Amino acid sequence: MAQSATDTAGPLTIYRRMQEAVLGDDATLLPAELLAEDIVVETPFSPPGMDRYDGREAWLAYYRTNGAALQVRFEQFRELATYQTDDPEVIVVEYELTGTVITTGVRSSVTCIGVLRVRDGLIKHWREYQNVLAISEALNRQPEDLGGANASAH
């Protein structure tokens, strides 16, 4: 069987694919075709029970239910910093996502830090530190709360 480009892609290449996928029509930061079967996805600042997913199917089942309910159209993925580590499988990234809440039209942004491990061209581990409070506030804001202007949630 011939190797595909994904089979040999390192963490920086996979991270670039993640950036593209979050801005697409079916927006997702973790595209299914990039996930190892035994991936671990962690969001340590999320509520208990929603902070770790073991395995591709567990993550995809969660995302099908909760990701679809997010109702945010991401418009910009701004890379703030990317750090190479001593481990060639791992990079640490800092980025800002900007989007519009579809139900309210409120535009907001949030800064995140992620630790990405890629092995054999697939994501083995994704740990994302999100500003959960800023995300919750952005999802609950109404246009009138902003006095007519769109503000950022940092």
Task: Summarize this entry quickly.
This protein is α+β, with helices and mostly antiparallel strands and 154 residues long.
Could you explain how this protein is built, in words?
This protein has 154 residues and is an alpha+beta fold. Helix content is 24%, strand content 37%. It is built from 4 helices and 6 strands. Strands 2-1-6-5-4-3 form a 6-stranded mixed β-sheet. The longest helix is centred in the first third of the chain and has 12 residues, at 11-22.
The structural class is alpha+beta
Q: What is the H/E order?
A: HHEEHEEEEH
Biggest sheet statistics:
6 strands, mixed
Mean pLDDT: 86
Helix content: 10-25%
End-to-end CA span = 47 Å
Low-confidence stretches: 1-7, 149-154
Q: How many strands?
A: 6
Strands in their spatial order, largest beta sheet: 2-1-6-5-4-3
Q: Roughly what fraction of the amino acids lie in strands?
A: 35-45%
Number of helices: 4
> What is the 3D form?
globular
Q: Specify Rg, calculated over alpha carbons.
A: 16 Å
Defining key terms:
globular, 154 residues, six-stranded mixed β-sheet, alpha+beta, 37% strand, 24% helix
Topology:
Layout: H1 5-8, H2 11-22, E1 35-42, E2 52-54, H3 56-67, E3 72-84, E4 90-101, E5 107-119, E6 122-129, H4 132-140
Parallel strand pairs: 1-6
Antiparallel strand pairs: 1-2, 3-4, 4-5, 5-6
